[in-house]
Amino acid sequence: MIKQITSSANPLIKDIRALERKRHRAESRLFVAEGARLALEAEEMGVYPKTLLFSSEALERPAVRDLVARMDAAGVDCVETNQRLLSQITRRDNPQNVIGVYRQLDRGLRELDPKTGSIWVALEQVRDPGNLGTILRTADAVGVGGVILVDECCDPFSFEAVRASMGSIFAVPLVRCTLQELLRWGREGGARLIGTSLQTEHRHDSLELEATMPKVLLMGNEQAGLTAEAVEACDELVRLPMRGRADSLNLAVATAVMLYALWAADGYPGARA
Ligand code: SAM
Q: In a mutational test of the pocket of ligand 1, which residue from 198, 207, 223, 253 has the highest number of ligand atoms less than 8 Å from its CB?
């Protein structure tokens, strides 16, 4: 049954508004994803929200009406509301008129087998949610085994990271772990750990890798790069060549270039025609 809520004092709305805060997201294990397109994509992957909110205007669109009917039938809490409340929830003047509240999907590293993916991305202490979301999107495009957040990272379920991921937050396996856990997991799974750094002479295109061996690409923090401990643990350390005045690449850009280089070295297996 579809509920109608128009008051910002409603406890459900208050609770959803609180998902703007990291602490509330961590406690509730929920997050907000904006837009009918994302809700449809998530549904295609078999992911349903706990709650779906939509404006009365959105219901005039047949695609949204059908979406709401399917969600309602699937037992999702469906709430008809107005643009003002959607704007308050998303902190946007022009909010999307469909918003889903989803359960967080990250899992334990032990649930993933390095051998099930040829390429993995590990991010050590990534701090910028925009970078993280962009990396999730690229990781999805390349079809990596998963994205591994190492030690203290920004929240992948923040509004900004979810927006930047453009739906890939639903598609890419995501785990959090410590550096030691990552190293043990990679070692036990026979993976090659490829670190990136500005302080090495080895170019990324000098890597000689066996196609059958899983590769874990390890990227560093936006300010400090990789920790000394991570650098020490890498099987290979490479840099992307530069020749202009910039002293480094943006983390998400460097990750994209590295991922495409690794995928190219494998011959782009699985690429869509
Ligand atoms: N001052 C930091 C340093 O010296 O490492 C710069 C960090 S950089 C903005 C953030 C991350 O992006 C690096 O840790 C590395 O993973 C990656 N990165 C950026 N530019 C790179 C390059 N030219 N070669 C390899 N990795 C690069």
A: 198
